[in-house]
Amino acid sequence: MSRLCIIFVAGSAVLWSLFFTSGLVAYATYSQCDPLTAGYIEKPDQIIPYLVMDKLNYLPGVAGLFVAAVYGGLLSSLSSCGNAAACIIWEDFLKYLPCFAAITDKKIITILRVLSVACGGVGLGVAIMVRNLGDIFNVTQSILSAVVGPSVGVFLTGMCTPWANTKVLNSPWVNTKVLNSPWGNTKGTTVGFSMATIYSLWLVIGKFIQGGGSPPRLPLSTHGCQGVFLNTSFTDALLSNTTSVDESEDLGIYDVSYCYIGISGIIINMVVASIVSLFTGVLKPGEVASELVSPSCERLHHWLWQNTPKCFNIRKEDQDIQDGSSFRPTHHDTSNCPSISNNELDSHNDYSFNKTLTRHNNVPQDEQERF
C-alpha cells in the first residue's frame, strides 16, 4: 500500500510539474505578444494548442501527435468517469429500490451499460453548455467547489462538532454503510449539507447568469506582435499603453471568487448543523467514539456541556431522570384488540358472578362458616 502511495504521489508531482512548466513556457514565449489580446485566439484555453501550432509546425507530425494525445487522454478519462458514475448510481441508489430486488446479474450489466451511456450523454451536454459560459478552468473549478465544499463539510462536521445529533434517515435507497457512520446519519448535518449545497449551486449558477463566471484579466503587452497596429493611428498607439479602469457592473455576492465557494459551503454546513442540533437535542459527551472526533473539539464539547445552560442540550428522557420522575407508566397498544360492547361486558360479568356463586353453594356448610 505504501509503495502504491509513493508511486501515485511521484506520478502526480511529475504530471503537475509538466502542467506548470508548459504554462510558464507559453507565458515566456508570448510575453511581448499576447495571442488573446491580439485576436489570434478566442479563449485562454487555446494558448497551448496555439503554441504547438505556432512554434512546432515545421516538424512533420508533431501537430497531429499533439491532437491525438489530447483526444486519447480525454476519451480514456471520460470513459473511466462514465463507468465509475454508473457504478456509483447503481450501488448507492438504484440497488436498494424494491423494483430491482430480484434482478439477475445479466440485467445488472445491461443497466450499467445504459447508465454509462447516459452519463456520457450528460457529459457531452455539460461540455456544450460550458463552452458558452467562459473559461473552462473557472467553470470546472466553480462547479467542483460547489459540489465538494458541502461534502467536505459533512466530514468536518462529524469530526469537529461531536454535539451534532444522530437521527437515522430511513431511506431505502441510501447506502447503509453511509448511514451507520457517525457523520452520515445526523439530522443536523443533513440539514446543513442541504443548505450548503443549495447556497453553493445558487452562487455558481448566479455567477454564470450574471456574467461573473470569468474574472477580469490583467492587461498584457502586444508590442512584439507583427502587424497588430498597422491600421491604427499614432494617437491610438500611444493610448494603447495605458491601463483602462475596470468599469464593469458590480455583481454583489456573485463577484466572489470560485476559490471561496467551497470554503463558504463548509462554513454554512457546520454552522447550520450546529444550530439545528442545538434545537433538536445535542449529543452528550461520550455518545460518539473518541477516535472519530478531534481531541480538541472533544474537550470543547465536555467544557460546553458542563458550563452552558441545559435548556437546549438536555433531551426529555434526561430531564425526567434528573427530576427524579423515573417511573413511567407502561402503555399497551390496544389498537389490534377486538372491541367489546357494553352488553357483552355485562353478560360476561353476570356469567362470572353466577359461576362464582354456584361454586360457593357447592362448598359444605362447615367450610362456609369457617370462611
Automatic annotation (TrEMBL):
GO terms for cellular component: plasma membrane. The keyword Lipoprotein does not apply. Gene3D superfamilies: Sodium/glucose cotransporter. Residues 322-344 are annotated as: Disordered. GO terms for molecular function: symporter activity. Keywords: Cell membrane, Ion transport, Membrane, Sodium, Sodium transport, Transmembrane, Transmembrane helix, Transport. Signal peptide: none annotated. Residues 335-344 have a biased composition (Polar residues). It comes from the Eukaryota. The chain crosses the membrane at residues 57-90, 111-130, 142-164, 258-283. InterPro entries: Na/Glc_symporter_sf, Na/solute_symporter, Sodium:Solute_Symporter_SSF. It is a multi-pass membrane protein. It is found in: Cell membrane. GO terms for biological process: sodium ion transport. Belongs to the sodium:solute symporter (SSF) (TC 2.A.21) family. This is Sodium-coupled monocarboxylate transporter 1-like 5. It comes from Homarus americanus (American lobster).
